[in-house]
Amino acid sequence: MNKDRLRYLFQQYQRRSQSSVEREEWLSALSDHGLETMLHEVMGEEWGKDVAPEDAITPAAAADTYEHIVQQPQPAKVRRLWPRIAVAASILLCCTAGAYLWRENSKPILTGPAVAQDVAPGTSRATLTLANGQKIVLSDDLDGEIAKQAGVQINKSKNGVLVYTVAENSDQPANALNTLSTAKGETYKIILPDKTEVWLNAASSLTYPARFTGPDRQVTLTGEGYFAVAKDKQHPFKVNTDQQQVTVVGTEFNVNAYANEQATRTTLLEGSVKVNAGPSDILIKPGQQSTLRNGSFRVQEVDLDQAVAWKDNEFVFDGDDIRYIMRMVERWYNVEVIYQGAISREKFYGGISRYENVSEVLKSLESTQKIKFRIEGKVIYVSTNL
């Protein structure tokens, strides 16, 4: 691939105008080590150019950006980069050599190789708790039939998915509840009795009946889950969390309801969703995210790739601060994070694969020269690089 073609693909990405063929070509170029130098040159040359009107960010994002600039004034030369940084925030350049990362006042940085001390990433693993209290650890060495209950067969497939199958003509009630839970450093996928698919993130749990009966299909979620709900207009699917209830008929959406996060976020990919919290009801459309904070809802357009990146085993930072990022790191790598001294208010944009060891993630953050890390066993110390 020549430089002009690479420049064209980069420009098309920035304009969000890539065709499906161009996107495949672009992703292939990103993973080609032979194009790394040329990619640096193209991005360096294109980074400071003016943004076309169609590339403008949403009013809400622009307002947030403006407020931060007012609070932390930047040189005029740097301010001109803000719109382009916001447009590029969702890009994932996960090459084998490392990952691209943006700071609020910098050009993209390509990180280097891993450091010596390391923590391995999480894995596909979970614990199934049956209604009778029996616990079954779902690991790689466990396949086939796991249990039977109330006319329902439970199997673990070879590709690591828990599958519930209801026997034909079964009229046995299934009021007993099962719970699938993941610890820190674990993730798992389950196919529920109604064929709804659920991806469960680390440090999460899903409680559900072995067989759905009654007028609706209700489950309870803690932590984070991505749902691809099987369509059944006669039996709405409801996801209950500590703060809200999500009601759908058949759609795909993500719910982030971790107890240590300040808000509960519901992101809709397709279909329609009603979110309820006490006396408040809202409807969200595809591409929107509802944020429930202190009993009040806010709805905004979001980058869907960023919102559900974890499902595809990717970290994506979109203006996130170090505390939010390190909470994700804690859950996925099963580590403890300790802050030393003042905490940086830096915000980060970019992405890296969740398959990488923790050192790769930390090294990409350190490349901004604003944060420093030290790993001691399963403890990560975070300090501001003054």
From TrEMBL:
Residue span, Protein FecR C-terminal domain: 314-382
InterPro entries in alphabetical order: FecR (IPR006860), FecR_C (IPR032508), Ferrdict_sens_TM (IPR012373)
Origin superkingdom: Bacteria
Alphabetical list of Pfam families matching this protein: FecR, FecR_C
Location of the FecR protein domain: 179-274
Protein name: DUF4974 domain-containing protein
